[in-house]
Amino acid sequence: MVKPKTKETLIEQAHRQFNQMFNMLEGLSSEDKMTAFSFDKPKSDQAAHWTRDKNLRDIYIHLYEWHKLLINWLTTNLNNQSSAFLPNAYNWKTYGDMNMMFWEKHQITSYDHAEKMLKNSHREVMDLIANLDEKGLFEKGFYDWSGTTSIGSYCVSATCSHYEWAMNKMKRHRKKVLS
């Protein structure tokens, strides 16, 4: 899928992919939605998330926590208070540890609550994006606090790219439970 380069495309694609994620679960029972993953990770992809995420709830929580990172970063910086995208204890070399921390933090979160949190955070992210102008979203260096990357890139990463990642795992789960 081509990464969005306009506000309109970002909004359209993020909503479409978000809805696709949930639509692909139609026909699954509540038990199927809450059951642990039982598919094998792809041999060609050794990324940590294949062993970290054990069920749909874990995927929802991962997406939710990355939404919250984006929301906090945008809100804080747009209000003229300096904030890094990642929490102080992490950087782009150690964000896998942060993802594991998110996973551990939510092991007591229920599937239903995780789904509700994700739907709310998606709505919040989309409202933030809708209130940004095109230039502010996609012009590199428009905001000095975004470094050499546009904030639109961060938005794409926390929405479209992450939803595509999630759907890859969800498709495997759906196939396995319906077989």
UniProtKB/TrEMBL annotation:
Source organism superkingdom: Bacteria
Pfam families the record matches: DUF1706 (PF08020)
Gene3D superfamilies per UniProt: dinb family like domain
Xref: InterPro entries: DinB/YfiT-like, DUF1706
Protein name: ClbS/DfsB family four-helix bundle protein
Source organism phylogeny: Bacteria, Bacillati, Bacillota, Bacilli, Bacillales
